[in-house]
Amino acid sequence: MTTLIFGHQNPDTDAITSAMSWAEFQKQAGNTDVEAVALGEPNDETKFVLDHFKVQAPRVIKTAANETDTVMLVDHNEFQQSVADIEDVQIASVVDHHRIANFHTAAPLFYRAEPVGSTNTVIFELFQEHGYTISPTLAGLMASGLISDTLLLKSPTATDKDKKILPEMAKIAGIDLQSYGLAMLKAGTNLAAKSDMDIIEGDAKSFTMGGKSIRIGQVNTVDLDDIYARQDDLLNAMTKEAQAKGYDDFLLIATDILNSNSTGFAVGADRDKVAAAFNEKFDTNARLALPGVVSRKKQIVPPMQKVFEG
Fold this sequence. Notes:
The chain has 310 residues and is α/β, with parallel strands linked by helices. 39% of the residues lie in helices and 19% in strands. The mean pLDDT is 96.
């Protein structure tokens, strides 16, 4: 029976490419009956990557237990971010770079997590540790995941290890980091082609904080005015989605990838708590200025968790 490998829901570039790179690792380790799949369609940035390296996108699954009894997780561990029937399958391994929460297994497993910029950083290390072969195409996919998650190493999540490994990936892949990286990041910022739901849910994750269900979405742009022009529609969409899915609060982070600043928008009963997490206040335009903030994992979730659970 084939073991399915996948990243989180609403997959970003690191989620999809790390599933593919971990599948290749497994095959070189002798575990050939594995398949990289995805819990959602690739976004525009990821499509750019797959097209550039002429790689087919993994197929999308909604459930896993109807196909297999064993899965491997990459780029996530929290059950609310995983496949809908995660409790009905055995988790054989996890490779991740996030916090560990809402996670348990009935059997022992392989678990590798490091506080680095991307899951592909960890997988690249594992390839090196085992002496496995990294093809130019695979290196390009891995580099793309790292570029995406660290905004070309501009994010505070980028560690010294990432800064050392990314040029190594790029050399194997035969890409120029700056030109390829910027083109890749810009490919994901064509907001005119995105619906309101695409923007608020395209890269959204759910978190439990202080007993509250918090949805945090993030969208990259090269011009925040593109977001401001659609603000009312986006807030309406967030309100409807929160009511439909039972979120107590929905926060959308719009990130200017060129200037490394963000603006926050929120709906729900706890907007004051959201603002307090950043020692800021929503202005008269219902916008929360977040200068220097680009990372949900490192700069958004921890301060919010501290306020909501304090």
